[in-house]
Design brief:
GO molecular function: lyase activity
Largest sheet: 2 strands, antiparallel
Protein name: Adenylosuccinate lyase C-terminal domain-containing protein
Strand order of the largest sheet: 1-2
Oligomer: single chain
Number of strands: 4
Order of helices and strands: HHHHHHHEEHHHEHHEHHHHHH
Shape: elongated
InterPro entries: AdenyloSucc_lyase_C, Fumarate_lyase_CS, Fumarate_lyase_fam, Fumarate_lyase_N, L-Aspartase-like
CATH superfamily of the largest domain: Fumarase/aspartase (Central domain)
Family: Belongs to the class-II fumarase/aspartase family.
Helix content: 55-70%
CATH class of the largest domain: Mainly Alpha
Distance between the termini: 47 Å
Number of domains: 3
Structural class: mainly alpha
CATH architecture of the largest domain: Up-down Bundle
Strand content: under 5%
CATH topology of the largest domain: Fumarase C, Chain A, domain 2
């Protein structure tokens, strides 16, 4: 057990993600805070509120500046946020020009803006990984497009599908999420500048102009202050939750496909057992299931933070600091494992065929019912198929043999009850899923 499973030395290789962790690190966020203060100095000087030349002096003094995180920690313990301690460090480094720092801002402006800058960077990482994963799944869907397997509904064998179609259904929610990501990035990547109570009183009437310049300097969108509107943060958490849910669907299916009694497919390197050498545990799939559960458990914390009291609230606001980085790291780790699973997918057609042939080929019962319905009332057709299944179960006949014996003449049961009849409609469904992605990407160009 460890208090830091996403970042600690022992558990993070499985549950963490080095790239996401680096983007969300204290060092990275502190650097964004410094960038905010430099940009604010330029914005207030442009508005005529601070001395000409002070912004350049501040930028020069802070070039390569590394905040003392230990001192920031002491400041957080005192003020509840690290910003006052950071501003003190910056002013000490800037000398006389430092008087122009932090003009008209409040600590939440600095923390929120630096947070969304980090989130923006992580979402770029997500964009790359989601895109690559969808591409890999599309390739695998095509590769396994004619591999027939038993489709299962409510845990029971239902009708035949192709493994390629199942893979495509794994990609479907990711395609929708990829299409939503540009708008989500625009929604979260907004500068925060409201001042003490949200109306920019200290810099009135220049608040909007300063926010515009800040946004331009930092590569963010300009907007009204959002101290009390945390819906964009909630939207990010919800989006990541849907990513991990989609990945958990894939992982869960692979766990079921890899059961010893089925052995229809597997993915990942697998983990061995010291005492049961026949086992190959689905470690990556299990990790995704765990990470999805963790993200799902954390997202309500963002909902709690989304109801701050009055103009600003220090208690609920802090819930975002606990939950959001963990959500983003866990989601990135799940995507990392998802890429590994997609790259190592294997199918075992001989075991899939065994399932198709089980119970005399009863998996084709639906096809038999609809074929008979062309020759008799549908209710009679269904009854006839049930009678045929009694022969299958009682006398060991195949469904083809039973229907040839008790069904009407003139029906080619060998063709109708061939599970390969599922290939064409399954391939059409898979192609339609990936066509949705093509259409979505063209719309966003």
């Amino acid at each position: 057990m460890t208090p830091t499973p996403l970042t600690g030395a022992v558990m993070a290789p499985l549950y963490g993600d080095m790239q996401a962790t680096a983007l969300l690190s204290e060092e990275a966020v502190a650097a964004h805070m410094v960038a905010f203060e430099i940009a604010l100095a330029r914005a207030t000087e442009a508005a005529g509120l601070t001395e000409t030349g002070s912004a350049d002096a501040i930028a020069a003094a802070l070039d390569g500046f590394d905040a003392d995180l230990a001192v920031l920690g002491q400041g957080t313990a005192s003020a509840g946020v690290p910003v006052p301690a950071l501003v003190a460090q910056l002013r000490a480094a800037c000398g006389e020009a430092g008087q122009a720092l932090h003009w008209g801002a409040t600590s939440q402006d600095v923390v929120d803006t630096s947070t969304v800058m980090a989130v923006r960077d992580v979402l770029e990482l997500y964009a790359d990984r989601v895109s690559a994963l969808i591409g890999a799944l599309e390739q695998q869907s095509e590769a396994f497009g004619d591999v027939v397997m038993g489709g299962r509904t409510r845990s029971q064998v239902a009708t035949p599908i192709t493994f390629g179609m199942r893979i495509a259904t794994w990609a479907a929610p990711l395609i929708a999420l990829e299409a939503e990501l540009p708008a989500l990035k625009d929604r979260i990547a907004r500068v925060q500048f409201g001042g003490a109570a949200g109306n920019n009183l200290a810099v009135a009437p220049h608040g909007a102009d300063i926010a515009e310049t800040l946004a331009s300097e930092l590569g963010l969108g300009a907007t009204v202050q959002w101290h009390g509107d945390r819906s964009a943060v909630m939207a990010v958490g919800a989006w990541v939750g849907r990513v991990t849910a989609a990945l958990a669907k894939m992982a869960g299916d692979l766990i079921l496909m890899g059961r010893s009694e089925a052995a229809e497919g597997k993915a990942g390197k697998g983990g061995g057992s010291s005492t049961m050498p026949q086992k190959s545990n689905p470690v990556a799939s299990e990790a995704i299931v765990t990470l999805n559960a963790y993200v799902t458990a954390l997202t309500p914390m963002l909902a709690i933070a989304a109801s701050p009291a009055e103009e600003r609230d220090g208690g609920r606001w802090a819930m975002e600091w606990f939950a959001l980085p963990q959500i983003l790291i866990a989601g990135a780790a799940a995507l990392r494992h998802g890429a590994d699973l997609a790259a190592t997918l294997q199918a075992f057609p001989e075991n899939m065929a065994r399932m198709l042939d089980a119970n005399g080929g009863a998996i084709m019962s639906e096809a038999a019912s609809f074929a008979l319905a062309a020759h008799m009332p549908r209710a009679e057709a269904q009854t006839l198929v049930k009678d045929a299944l009694k022969l299958v179960n009682g006398q060991g006949k195949t469904l083809t043999e039973a229907l040839s014996e008790i069904g009407p003449d003139g029906i080619d049961w060998m063709q109708i009850l061939d599970p390969r009849q599922a290939i064409a409609p399954s391939q059409a469904q898979a192609k339609a899923i990936f066509a949705n992605r093509t259409n979505s990407l063209e719309e966003t160009k």
